[in-house]
Input
Amino acid sequence: MAVRPIVMADQPILRRKAEPVLRITPALRRLIDDMVETMRAAEGIGLAAPQIGESLRVIVVEVPEDEEVPGSGILHVVINPEILEASPEIVEGVEGCLSIPGWYGWVPRHRSVTVRGLNRDGRWIRIRAEGLVARVFQHEIDHLNGILFPDRIQDPTRIWRVQPAREAVSEPVSAGLSSGLRD
Ligand code: NI
Output
């Protein structure tokens, strides 16, 4: 396993539609391991394969149950994920992205979704997710379609940049913003 560099938003791979996985091979399992390790090292709560330079339809999601304890949530690995059902109810929440460091925004998402795909053993799985976990699934599946969270924000006043703490001069970064979702 290895922590891999995260691709930044200006790279074309993040604007491409990722390719479906046709076969689950040892190389694919290594890619998944690297995705999990990279996500955890970056303290993210989700990652899509294009973010480490592989244009393949694979996502990992791990939202901690206890915000203070990384790794305390359920790890989901989904190959060729699809949203089967989405609640009509739309909710806004703060998102960030490991590929767009320092930026956050209010993004509308379905409150709950049912996601179907394959697990790392090639078996069909179906996950019903709500709240933050549902949000992360929608964010990661967007990555597989070349969509980044700012694309989902109509109102430019709903997106902002948080300076790293060492650069903050006059205004402290509020806890709510600095602990925003990053994936
Ligand atoms: Ni992202």
